[in-house]
Design brief:
The mean pLDDT is 90. The radius of gyration is 23 Å and the shape is globular. By secondary structure, the protein is mainly alpha-helical. The longest helix has 34 residues. 72% of the residues lie in helices and 0% in strands.
Length: 461
Amino acid sequence: MVFASTSFIFLFLPLFLLAYALVGARWRNLTILTFSWIFYAWWRLDFLALIVSIAAWSWGTGLWINRREGKTRRYALLVAISWPLMSLLWFKYANLLAQTATWLGAPLGQWEAVILPIGLSFFVFGAISYSVDVYRKTVNVEHSFINYATYQSMFVHLVAGPVVRYKWVAERLQARAFDRKEFMLGVERFMQGFVLKILIADTLAPLVDSGYLLSAPSATDAILTILAYTLQLYFDFSAYSSMAIGLGLMVGLKFPENFNHPYLSTSLSEFWRRWHISLSSWLRDYLYIPLGGNRQGLARGCINLLITMALGGLWHGASWTFMVWGIWHGSGLIIEKLWRTANMPALPSWSSHIALILFVMLGWMLFRAQTWDEVAVMLDALQGHHGWQMTESFAAILRPNQIICLVLGIALVYLPKVYTINTRVQHLHSAISRVALCPLWLLAIWVLQGRTIVPFLYFQF
């Protein structure tokens, strides 16, 4: 089940909200937890035991960490993160290691592919952050398994993030009152995300898929395919984050924003402060800083940055293309860091923005490619090896509504920039958006009926 489906909109969500409204305050977390487990079991009942076991393990070991000091406390932390981490390594990377071993000539026999449980990466990162925070004494240990499991398993962020930390929701897990204004804001955020997902991201999805299937795309074909994916990924994932934030507000839980107009950035470091903020901050606080950050000199800081981004890339998927994508961004961040350290002159904002967008789009080409052959085809196309004009094959798959979505997507990306020039535009856009939201919502519902459901892109991570 996905948020952008009729089964969720017209069955699961109404039943959940009705049950949540009828129970007393004491049973609200248990209601969220029960529906969250039903939500996950809707996909695969057999994997429900895995996420329950990780939640139980992290909760129990958290109590253990809280009672220990010194070396025993560090040992308890290692035990706490062992089961979540081993689960992630097995389910996410066993196939990659097997494929690599086979490619290197190791005799593995007949390998049976391991199925990756949806949302496991987000679930594991939440468990690890809780254990580390209890160890660091930056959060109080949670004594109630129901409360902890609710934090870990709540369906509003379970399968595709954001990477929610316990301290963000700890206070409201203990007690919260219904706030009508907050609830209506949550409904609005959910509807906004739904509209962006269905009308823009899902409309561009077939164009991206078809573009990557072309055996000899032209440069124009490749550029439009990469542009379409750049917009699809942003509007798909930011839409999910908006829907998750909205669902959280409906039950009195506040999650921080996960996107802050990243495509308006003028530097790579700024981009990563604006893109998938919950993951970027997680990698900084639980990987980059523990590695030493930049406290041990420039060279070590650059190495730590490259390791962090490479592992962050590999976190996104069990493919070496993801690691190379992480290294691509890590290398860019290092160059940027060295440029600043050498006190080199800053580029004009417009040129640095263009350079940033081109850099990010080339990275998305690696991110989307599933094989090195696809990477090679796209690189050949970008160099004009198959011509520069749009091919007949690509023209045949390009639809008018997709052209509209490309233009509309670019306009929505840059619209906040107009706000800084004229604040009246912002007020006008806000008013129009509120008036148009319900008709667009109904249009999205109607469009959804004639389509195959397109899963959120970050489900695979």
